[in-house]
Amino acid sequence: MHHHFVVGTLDAILINAARDLRTQADKVELALAKRVACTQEVTNRLERDLKEVLHNLATVEDLMADLRAAIRRMDIPMKKAQTRLDNRLLRPRVENCRDPPHFGLIEEVKSIGEGTAALQAQLNQAMQSQANLIKARGELEKEIMYKRKSLEIDNERTRKIRSFYPSAAALSGYT
Questions:
Q1: Which of 55, 36, 33, 32 is nearest to 44 (CA)?
Q2: In the chain, N or C terminus with fewer CB closer than 10 Å?
């Protein structure tokens, strides 16, 4: 009689332990699924951010090309105005005077120089933006790579191993 009581108690303990193990395994499966979903969501967000950074990078590169072309276009008028001013300064004696046309040429050279300097400043700012975007792109690509590797480990390796976890009945020894 005592033997049947002990066997029944042990059997109940074994069944409860197997049920607890299976419940815990199910909780782990749920937590793993949530982790995979969260990681996938973060990866998707990072990929959208990367796409936006690449678009901004293309825009900045186009702007830089336009600024360089504008600076090159300013070169010919600058040379022309400087040549006219130099030719004016080479005039002999009385003809070499500071009259309104002379001041106009000086103002023209100054104006073109300021315009070129402003374009160069914009180009430098665009180059800094480009460097920042390239750095951001590298960081995003690295982070996406890490997230994809994490997803691969969670999906392919961990889930595959966990798929072999026995059922509650198998844990109880009934299979």
A1: 36
A2: N
Contact by Cβ (8 Å): 29, 164 = no
Cβ-count burial of 124 within 10 angstroms (0-12 exposed, 13-18 middle, 19+ buried)? exposed
Tally the domains of the chain: 1
Domain of 166, CATH number, reads 1.10.287.1490
Find all residues with CB under 8 Å of 64, minimum gap 6, and list them.
Answer: 123, 126, 127, 130
Q: What is the pLDDT of residue 175?
A: 58
Distance of CA 128 to the CA centre of its chain: 16
pLDDT band at 163 (very low <50, low <70, confident <90, very high): confident
Amino acid identity of residue 120, one-letter, is: Q
Cβ atoms of 74 and 112 within 8 Å: the answer is yes
Report whether 57 contacts 130 (CB < 8 A): yes
In eight-state DSSP terms, residue 167 is: P
Write out the residue range of the structural domain in which residue 33 sits: 2-172
Q: Which of 19-28, 83-92, 112-121 has the highest mean pLDDT?
A: 112-121
Which of the two residues, 52 and 1, has the higher pLDDT score?
52
